[in-house]
Amino acid sequence: MILSIQSHVSYGYVGNKAAVFPLQSMGFDVSSINTVQFSNHTGYGRWRGEVFNAEHIMDIAKGIEDIGQASKCTAILSGYMGSRAICEAILKIVERYKSINPDLLYLCDPVMGGKTCFVKPEVVDFFKENLFADAVTPNQYEAELLSDIKVSNVKSLKTIAERFHKNKIKIVVITGVSIPELPNALYVFVSDGQNQYVIKTEEYNFSAPINGTGDLLAALFLGCYLKTKNAARAAQYSVYFMQKVLKNTYDSKEKELQVLSEKYQIETTDCMPELTRV
After folding, report:
1. Residue 141, domain extent
2. What is the CATH number of the domain that holds 256?
3. Per-block average pLDDT, block size 10, for the chain (278 residues)?
């Protein structure tokens, strides 16, 4: 079982709505805990719904434990966290579930922003002080914010990865990498502590920003890593699936990420994106 702790929307595909279906398609049993329940994502400019408090989130996790299912949890995925209290609650859940299953893998997607920061300073401070995860999937902006290192070349990417690894984070995936050394495209960078790679991604000129891509990528990486036990291969598969979904979204001319348009079967992939060691 994978426990996915993220936001939820009734309409659209961000947070748990972007993460659960791909993981289930790969054959994983997914239990979701929603940190919020909104009508739609906030990119629309207006929405309705409720933000759940830390006690609610911990209570749901405890309920799963009470019926004897925590021992079956092999991985936890976390995404957007709206407050330090929620950050602390999720960390306590991870620690509790890891005490029940020491082999549990925790992937934290430290959602904080893109070109600017859209979370409270207390959330940024929490991640800087308490990012105790087995794997992280920040975008370039978030990686810079957490490390206080500007990404300007491949060397700086490696330096950021080393800083994360020193904090006992085993796998570092940095998305949306744009640097002069790797021109004319965005890249995904992955480090397992021993080797580092980049994967070129295709860009699409959407008429409006598409939300949920980071949520989908984090879920894809977790599922592919659990299947392959290889960080570089998992990143390669993740980019492959992400590119197919983005193309389907672009072709559909819809505002929402077309998560349901792909089958996510790693055994049947072809034309895999190139993996370049750096």
Report:
1. 2-277
2. 3.40.1190.20
3. 97 98 98 96 94 96 98 97 94 98 98 89 94 97 96 97 97 96 93 97 91 97 98 97 97 97 85 92
